[in-house]
Amino acid sequence: METILTELISLPIFMNEFGKQLYIVRKHKNLTLRQLDELSGVKFVRIGRFENDKEQPTLEIIRKLENALGVSFEQLENVSREIKELYARFVDTLIYDRNDLNQYIELINKNRGIYLVNSHYPIILLILYIIDIHKNNLAEAEKIEEELEKLLLANSEYCQLYYEYKGVRFYLQEHYEEAANILTYAMTIANNYKQNTMICYHLSMVNMSRNIYIEALSYADMAKKGFVEFASFKRILYIEGQIGSIYSQMRRFDLAINKYTTCLTVCETLDVSPTTKALFYRNLSWIYIKSGNYSQSLAYLEKAEILDPENIYLRMYKIWCNYKLGRYNTARSLTIQYKAIEENKSFKKRFKLFCELVYKEGTMPTLPLLKSAIDVYDEFAAKCNFELMNFYIDIVVDLLKQRDDDKRLIQYLETKIKINNEINQQRNY
């Protein structure tokens, strides 16, 4: 792969298809212009002119070059059409969320030899790049980004899709500002309505993570309009769930509950994965946790657990609900049962805090416990994650009240007011 990337990058972007293809095959065969001259009987100067689009070969010359290289340029042209058709199907797979990405990997691996010597191989690389991002293989995807940018420079449509998923990569790595900038740029490159619809979908998620809820809702509405036009029913379901998440973060719980309930109803008519359905149940559970209805939250968690029992959020929510309901023995039992969570880097501090709270069981909070709570809060404050800042600041406030630490209590209460003021500014959308 590294060799073909180097060869493709060195091509002038204005070369015609035959010139590109001849150059790639010659390089792949490790032949110089003079060596191909000797094998084909076509002067090396003319071969260079063909490759640089300064002269068009006759059919007789093409046959001589084919015999020397052991290829059929007509077959390579058919492969080019096949790659373009594969790309079109792949874009539709993304739009309609067909969950058949592994089929593309199998097909590409099967035909890699013929794809590798084709001038449209960058499209194959782009497909593999996007699949890596979908599978969260972000380090692998990142390795080929610089090459892909150069390879796709001449085609704005392919470049748009590349930048869209580069933005998604930044989003998954929680670099939300960079993700927003790249996705916004992707929107300006080409006027492809399908791809613009997907970009709006991703911009909605990014702006929700940036706490810019009005923009997030606006992009979600645009994405929904596109998905309706394309009759992409799964994507319509997902964008409705996304809107529910935005409402949840805005603390418009009634609207969020309505969205998630509708999504669960629609799930019954669509071929939706159990994990997707479980996500909607967990989101409902989270809303009831935020509103203090822990019994109702547990009821939804029971439904989610049937569908996706290994989910970490599910397990954390179960511990929290039982703790808040005063079921300390059950909560302690769950911390032991779910001990593996402490090996997860993203949840380690939160799980440690929950364990300390559960074993405190109504006694005076210790300074180490308070420090654990503040550490978790600070982690989300550093990311400006308003939703989790709100949740964990309540824990800090409660512990400070129990310790009669009025000075720091006032400090955190003032911070909580600021967070809620930020949220409330966008509630009237």
Calculate the terminal CA-CA distance, rounded to whole Å: 50 Å
- Gross geometry: elongated
Order of helices and strands: HHHHHHHHHHHHHHHHHHHHHHHH
Outline the low-pLDDT stretches.
Answer: 9-15
How many β strands by DSSP? 0
Secondary structure tally, helices: 24
Our Rg estimate from Cα atoms comes to 28 Å
Kindly describe this structure:
This protein has helices at 2-9, 17-28, 33-40, 44-51, 59-69, 73-96, 101-116, 121-134, 138-143, 145-151, 156-172, 176-189, 193-209, 213-229, 233-249, 253-267, 274-290, 294-307, 312-324, 328-337, 348-360, 367-382, 386-402, 406-424. Helix 3 (33-40) packs across helix 4 (44-51). The chain has 429 residues and is mostly helical.
Brief digest:
This protein has helices at residues 2-9, 17-28, 33-40, 44-51, 59-69, 73-96, 101-116, 121-134, 138-143, 145-151, 156-172, 176-189, 193-209, 213-229, 233-249, 253-267, 274-290, 294-307, 312-324, 328-337, 348-360, 367-382, 386-402, 406-424. With 429 residues, the chain is an all-alpha fold. The protein starts with a helix and ends in a 5-residue tail after the last helix.
